[in-house]
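Quick start: read one record
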Amino acid sequence: MSGSIPVRQELREQREQRDLETRFESSYHQGSLSSVSHKSYAAHVSSKGVKTLKKEKVKKISTISKKDKRAYMAVGQEEEEVIGYVVPVFRSSHLATQDLMESQEEVKEEGLGYVVMKNLFSRETDYKIKVEKKSRSTIMRESAERMALGKKMHENLEFQKKMNPDSLTHPPEFVVKPRGQTVWEGKDVTLHCTVAGWPKPRVAWYKNNVLIDAKAHPEKYTTESNYNMHSLEIKKCDFTDTAEYRISALNVKGEKSALASLIIKRFKDEGVSERPHAYSPEHGVTFRTTIIDRFGVAFGREGETMSLGCTVIIYPTVKRYQPEVVWYRNGVALTPSKWVQMHWSGERATLTLVHLNKEDEGLYTLRVNTKSGFDTHSAYVFVRDVDVEVEGVPVAPLDVRCHDANKDYVVVTWKQPAVEGSSSILGYFIDRCEVGTHHWAQCNDTPVKYARFPVTGLVEGRSYVFRVRALNRSGVSNPSRVSDPVVAMDPSDRARLRAGPSAPWTGMIKFTEEDPTVGVVPGPPSDLAIAEATKSYVVLSWRPPVQKGHEGLMYFVEKCMVGTDTWQRVNPGMPVKSPRFALFDLAEGKSYSFRVRSCNSAGVGEPSQETEATTMTDRLDLPSAPGPIVPIRNTASSVVVTWGASKEASSLVRYYIEASVVGSNVWEPCNNKPVKGSRFECHGLNEGDKYVFRVKAVNAAGYSTSSADSEACLVKASIAVPSPPSAVTLVERVRDYMVVTWQAPAETGGADIRGYYLDYRTVKGSIKSKWHEINLKAVTGTSYKVENLKENKFYEFQVRAVNQTGISQGSVPSAAFECKEWTVAVPGPPHGLRVLEVRKDSMVLLWEPPTFNGCSAVTGYYVDIREEKGRWRGVQERSTKETFMKITGLKEGVSYLLRVHAKNIVGVGGPSKTSGPVIAQTRPGTNEIVVDVDDDGVISLIFECSQMAEGSQFLWSKDYKALTDSSRLTVQTVGGKSRAIFNEPSLEDLGTYSCFVTNTDGVSASYTLTEEGLKRLLEISHEHQYPIIPFKSEMAVELQEKGRVRFWAQVAKFTSNCQVNYVFNDNIITQGKKYTMNFDKSTGIIEMFMDSLEVTDEGTFTFNLVDGKGTGRTSLVLIGEEFAEIQKKSEFERAEWVRRQGPHFVEYLSFEVTPECNVYLKCKVGNMKADTEISWFKDGIEIAEDDEDAQKIGITAGVLSFNIGKLSKKDAGVYEVTLWDERGKDKTVLNLTEAGYQAVLNEMFRVIANSATELKVESTEHGIILSTSVVHYCDELRVGWLHKDSKISYSDRVQCGVTGEKLWLKIKEPADKDKGKYSIDIFDGKANVKKVLDLTGKVWEDAFAEFQRLKAAAIAERNRARVVGGLPDVVTIQEGKSLNLTGNVWGDPVPEVSWVKNEKQLVSDDHYTLKFEHGKFASMTIAAVTTTDSGKYALVVKNKYGTEAGEFTVSVYLPEDDAEKKE
């Protein structure tokens, strides 16, 4: 059993060593380590003992005991990680410095949550502090003695230095020299050494005696210098890193060097392997891992879900074997949680990030571990903030963590956000929520400035989560992601729960007897210390007392302000359970001492030793601004930035980088999670834009000021080495030389190919010699004549391309060519085919003449073309002597292949090598050459390129040949714009001019200058050299007030130097009494004023303009009738002005006809006074106030009126109005006779005609009536009716007329001939207004039917039976007398007659005698009436047209009644 223990330990150590190697070989880990902590695995193992604990956590072992080590370092309880160093107060400065140096050498990569407090706050310590009280006088005496002793020692030291200055100095000496190493390709390696010397030597690393610049190549090299230990790390070694490395140490005493050889091994039968794969004896195979379909740089937004994935191929496939798939974020292995989900399908590894948050931002690495090795892939994930609800508020903080959890206390830390909003962050609010509830409670009333806060008042045994919100002047941010749950419990209990049972239960229980401690008052706490201190709070920590009893132990905390002896209990009502306590509400700048008392149910114990005085100030200042930031081009969407670390780098959280498009002044964060180190790759940039960058540091105290803005950096893919050339072929051979050609590289690496280098080797059977260089100077073309070869020998060739970055790999070797004479008579194939100016329907092909002409010179060329899957066809029928051709008539989007044949007098040679496929398309942003003629008449060709890259140049050519004669053309290039200027344009300059931009994807264009085009350009040039100033308006004349004459013109284009000469009849005139001149250069208006025109002013007026070399002229000729008319108008305007000085008519007397056809005479007056007299006259007779017409006069708002009303002939006459007062007199006259009267009538006719309504149809018993209504009718109005566009002949049957304002046409007894279109023409003073009605169809049918109905009704009304008279309404008769009544009856036919009494028909008898005579008279006689005859009677007549009743009442009275009435 004992023998197996070493074996287990050895296996465990091997496994731990392999896990640690994995940690140090992570591609991300190597890229993300700080400059202080970059170490290779080998160096780490060689310098320190290593022991692995749970999972990936690494704890370093030193010779210091665990107890002593804990006293010197601040250690995290949960992560067992060194986070800071504490200098004990009782140790001397020498020992403290020594311990600090030792601890700094052991500090590994700090945990992200603890780096905030590194070297700021101390943690729990195991050491004991012994405090000795001294009096003030004793302290002052000892202090004075120390100062005197220190001064004396300093003086003695200075004296010794003067006496022997070289006693301490010595040259550099290598204590440990770098050791040579042999490693596999793809691994990282570190060379270490230790150098002694004074002054401290400066070191430099060399590779094959070439200085290594690690700052220029941070991706390849990392150098470190710590306490005379120096190292050089070489990352991802390749075969070219095999070299002799030298380190040189230099100081004032001399220089010393040490050498180390590095050998890089490559596996056989393999190319370069990123990760070497070893043989797996367990499965008998070597697993090879390939990662494809790799995820790239990703961008997400908070709240979204993102998935990352790769396809993994493991070869060979072993049944039931699966690799280990591990995901890392920033070098830390991820585990599944509610935020992170992982899936491995056997072929594809997927990582899903649920509900993204800024904490998820970072470098994600997929690592696939097999039994033979591992392979990795990494890419960065950026998480942008969610949009804020209130503009200007900061974004949410991030990375909220909990530390030092106790029974009722926990420390919460977080990181500041990247965006502060519209104003700086004022502080933070911390919220807590008990797990299992949804109630959030705010922990602090006042915002805290530090990114760290102690939360008290927790309930023991309960779990809590925390979140943080940022505050600025605009409001409060969204809350951060909640922290992991933390339990409020004693740390020792947490440790016991984490550790689990110490041993299995054996079934035996042992009892030990202890001293009774019930009722014992606890002793004083020990080791009281200030764990944290800021200007807003202090955190105290202590150890429980040794004597505490079995009851629950709690504590009271007391404070005392320095300078007083008063101790005040901080928590009198609520003692704390945890041996930590946070004090708030302390006075900033004041000093305090603190002590603690223990208490239980037995009482309160004695106080602990008090702390030293602590001043309430911040111990951590804001970080200083980082050093200069340098951007480096990387890809088409990213830029690498590096910067100088902040001076307070040891206490930094990390850095935020911001970018801004040049000119926008809008800064956007590049990372939303702070990064460590001084290098970052900014992704998500727009290609082609120029950006400037800045960086700011952040620690627990807040943000630093931003660094200075970087230089502008263009976002574009960086330059790389080109790919190898291809298709090396032979085009000519003679006895001692051969001509070979090749195709340019498919990828130029982002820079122009500067040339090519050729190698050759001899071939004899299967034996091939070594490669030999052919040319020491790069060849610019794609063909080369290899000379000094031996006849009948075989040679192979390879070609390498070179750009400004370097030389490419060699091409695939050509076939073996024999060097012997060619006897072919036809020329060889052309070579060097290039395609330029690719457009959607054309392209230009260029080539070089064949190197072998055959038996005679080349006389021409033929060009063939075919679609990628088509047949070859000739482009032209006749050969061309040029070495270029523009091919037109192409199909857009189709891929074409091209080749060229050369010919001589013997025939046509073979085809050239086919050009690569070219797609006919016009790419976005393609520009053409533009012809420009500037203001000086200079003719030039302009070409602009928006795809300029570093090192791009404009190459101009004529007829596709380089320009050699600079006397004809001058080229000027500024930025992305090039101008080719014709010095002296002439017929010699005719031709095709082309421009090609190097270091681009074939940007080119051409312009053909023809004779006609040159002629037109020369004309434009002459116009520009001798320009004529254009006028927007030529000279004109206008009259102004008082008859003033204004001559004016407006210039369209001029400068501020433009001058005007005023000329009259070829004589220059100047400003004076007669002429007033003005040139308003803001509007370009030129003016000249004259008060009046005289006879001598007849002639030509001219404005002559001079503006630099430009001239302009505009004239106005005023002679003869034109001058006389202007002069007359001027005099009239002057007279009018004089008239308007007194009472005058603004508008003269005129008439107006209202819509009601009333006639008003009106005039408008001005400049009136109260005493101005107004008089009206008609026919020369003044209208007096008592005249009838005086009632028609009115005045309103300066308008005089005379209401004539409806015009009649009596209103004709001459009307006159006069105005008069002491200032003058004015009058106006209106003649309303003859023509004037007719004008008023015509206006009336217009109103009447336009008021006419549409024709309408009415039916009567006699016929049909067509009518229209007007507002007024007068006899003078001419009206005409038409039927079918012919004037109607009036008769008894067809009549027209006027009734009031209604114009009508009556058609009696209408018939079918009366159908048709009817219209009425009403004269409107100038023409006729016509109203039309189509009396056909339904209109006719309805009107005719209504006519017939009315006619029938009229007949019936005339012939119906009726009582026409003779019957009274009431008859009063005395009883006994006879009553005889006769009624007149009418009806055709003769009606039937009956009499009715009280609605009962009467019959003729003795009492009633009823008669009807002559068909007209109906009579009724009642003999000897009685009272019973009283009642209502009616005579009823009836025939076929109707019935009618003539009703009457008969009243019979007795004689007695009559006598009574008389009485």
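The two ends are 170 Å apart (CA to CA).
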